[in-house]
Design goal:
The protein is mostly beta strands and 433 residues long. It is built from 1 helix and 21 strands. It has one helix at residues 2-14; strands at 33-45, 51-62, 68-83, 93-96, 103-106, 113-132, 136-147, 150-163, 168-181, 207-223, 226-239, 247-251, 273-275, 281-295, 298-309, 314-327, 330-341, 351-352, 369-382, 388-401, 420-432. It has a 16-stranded antiparallel barrel with strand order 1-2-3-6-7-8-9-10-11-14-15-16-17-19-20-21. Strands 13-12-18 form a 3-stranded mixed beta sheet, with no helix packed on it.
Amino acid sequence: MKERSISAALAAATCGLLGGGIPASVEAQEEPTWDFNTSLLYYGEDEDRVQEFSLKSIIRRLFVDDRVFSFGLTIDGLTGASPSGAIPLDTVQVITNASGNSDYAVPSGELPVDEEFRDTRVAITANWQQPVGESSQVSFGLSGSKEYDYLHLGLNGRIAKDFNKRNTTISAGFAIASDENDPVGGAPIALSSVLDVGDLSNHLGTGDKDVADIVLGVSQVVSRNLVIQANYSFSNESGYLNNPYKLLSVVDGTTGDTIQRIPAPGGGPTHEFRFESRPDDRTKHSVYTQAKYYMNGNVLDASYRFMTDDWEIDSHTVDVRYRWPIGDGKYFEPHLRFYAQTEAEFYRLSLTDGATLPLYASSDYRLGDFDAITAGLKYGWKTRNNNDMSIRVELYQQSGSIPAGQVIGNQAGRDNYPDLNALIVQFSYRFKK
């Protein structure tokens, strides 16, 4: 039992910090208790791009016999400028907003971004967890979120069973969701032209999608100091998968410059653009491994994830944390994360004027070939009332590239995929009663 208790403490020490981590066992309660965990997060990109403020609170009610009810509330506010997908030019270009109700000018040489990007999201989750027999545990939950143009509703469940004197745990989980995308002005027809202000003839109604996820996992207590875990995940999305606010430039096949057009008197694009088009189905497979090693109070937490999908995107994620106690309930936790992915098979910088339109095309930088690194430090401490507080500061840097065969003429002299830098600050507070 001593080995089991040390291993449980090891898992509990860090599992709450990482999504998808090894779940901590819930100690049997002699009487019901409450657990409150609240965090405030700021995420800010440079060049006046996306800024996010997020408030997240999780309330857990711990009952006798390891039964737990949890409720989560998240409120996100986003502002700033979001890349439209168009390429920079050596002249000023004007672009109609995806909603079709106004336009905006992009200075010469700058990456086209929509500076009117605004969004607020409210999300809630509810989950019930309880033991089944002496060695199994089940949980099920609901989730929902609402943005001004997006609605998500979901259902999830999980079952876990212990073996080998509770040193081995296998688990299986599922999640299903139904999402509705209702962009301002309606969802644009894929690969249709961006029209003048007020012309919504190529905009339809809403776009719906369904999501199904399955996760199979096993965790193992290897020794009194080491716990490991491995998961396999399957995910399928079907329906409307386009981003209604992303577009592509239509360029001259020799110069690589965007084709000019004459806008209407009421305003509109000065160049030719088309809305993106993505497949209506996406299947992802991923493998996740994690190890946590306890060393005289210190905890090393390392994980690796590989993901591949039928859009030809492959990604690798390496994440390392090291919790270093410094006495009196205080600790430092350095964090380092590496991420790399290949571009989607339909990713392209621009469309060539006069060429046959492809079935699918997107210049969304998040579907491109890029590497990213996150580095930071977390400091945690105990308050006088024995509650937990922490502050985390991290820097994020992303660098991407365009396939050489997609760069045409003058595009070679421009920064078509500028680096992205962001600052992340999070303050957390947790108490029980």
